[in-house]
Amino acid sequence: MIERHRRNYRIYWGTVRYAQAKDGAYWLNTARGKPPTVVLKPDQMAVLMRQKGFEATEDLEGASFATWAKMGMQDSTGRFFLHVNDLEWFDLRLNDEDDGFDE
Question: CA of 98: how far to CAs of 54, 55, 63, 64, 89, in Å?
Fold first, then answer.
């Protein structure tokens, strides 16, 4: 199913389970194993951290995201990656930003 979406721009959304700096980029992992991982460049992560007032990448854990991106695959692991080209097409929202939403 995921294979047919590779190399196509689509809207993807999910929850950041854990974040890490790896291979000169930042990975926002949606789960362990092969679910998609959002990849941000260091300058993109710096902007995001500043906009949200984060001090550490762990602050992103549990946040919801939506992005317009192409899905790619790293052959050595089989993991799918969502490469964000422009932060204008990426949004991150923390649960506490929605306090009182369901009242």
Answer: 17, 20, 11, 11, 21
